Amino acid sequence: MIRFAGSGLNVPPPLSLYLHLPWCVKKCPYCDFNSHAAQGIPEAAYIDALLLDLERALPDIWGRRIHTVFLGGGTPSLFSPDGIDRILTGVRTLTQLLPGAEITLEANPGTVEAARFKGFREAGVTRVSLGIQSFNTRHLKALGRIHDDLEARRAAEFAATHFDTFNLDLMFALPGQTLAEALSDLSTALAFEPPHLSAYHLTLEPNTPFGHTAPPNLPDDDLAADMQLAIEVRLSEAGMRHYETSAYARPGHASRHNLNYWQFGDYLGIGAGAHSKLSFHDRIVRQMRTKHPQQYMDAVKQGAHIADTRTLTRDDLPFEFMMNALRLNEGVPAALFEARTGLPLIVCASALERARVRGLLETGTTRLKPTLQGQRFLNDLLELFLVG
Q1: Which residue of 5, 68, 80, 364 is surrounded by the most CB atoms within 10 Å?
Q2: pTM for this structure?
Q3: Is there a contact between 321 and 341 (Cβ–Cβ < 8 Å)?
Q4: pLDDT, tens only, 24-34
């Protein structure tokens, strides 16, 4: 248990709700998320489990208002609009969901049609995040995606038609990709005038086919860096602010749900394999639900679906906080550290000084903000806050 300095957390952080819908049409070879190829989705039974899980979790969030909701996966757009409506109706019934809360749903371009998008909007979804990855058919095939370039364009059109705020996810440094091809993807995406765009460097995760059994031939580090810089310049010219490592937004369209993560807010994770971070007066707890969907559904009925619970220690907190906050290019107010961890910032004094000396952190004392060098070498910056 953490022994907080002073009086602990008198004011809990903002609270978000994450709902995990773990099925996909096909598992992508680069993906290490808890997702499973669909062979018939037990939609009604899984929603039963989600809502029972949420009901059982209410004592942990009693009296707290939910600011944002995120339906992630997997591919949540495989669920019917009626199913999404049932989930969100349950959320409104069981919790104190704030009026005007941001409600995001992840969607795969190969699983959407106009009627479904209209139905998701009518169910209460306010924002969709489309996993485009590329508009180039050759690269989509290399990534194992189920959609082609025409489906990607059609899905982006649907999103622009039905939602005021939507996100297009792109990847760069793809197998065999040139700089010109990466910028072509970006130009195509910008033609749909997305309020938010994410641009991720493809990484090879160890427990995936790409990372273990069939690694592809990727652009070298210099070319990947050239792509990243060119993307940053092009999006800045298009009026989009680079506010987080991989995220760009027009004014007023940053992801409120993700900002809560990065500002070390709280989140309740419901569903197979979902993670939670919850703050109490004298401790901060991380939880993980049972991962396999069927095992999760069975365990929820028995009240045995929490697979792991860990209370963060005093030594954990500096790294945990900085790992999130320093992803933000503008950083966070220095006072947020004590507000969200219950610890005085002086516990980080040595690491902060080393980061400033190495030119990775701005020298001002009122804000924890990475320099441009710190943004480029974020892992080096974060390592300074590890204990032991």
Answers
A1: 68
A2: 0.93
A3: yes
A4: 876 666 655 66
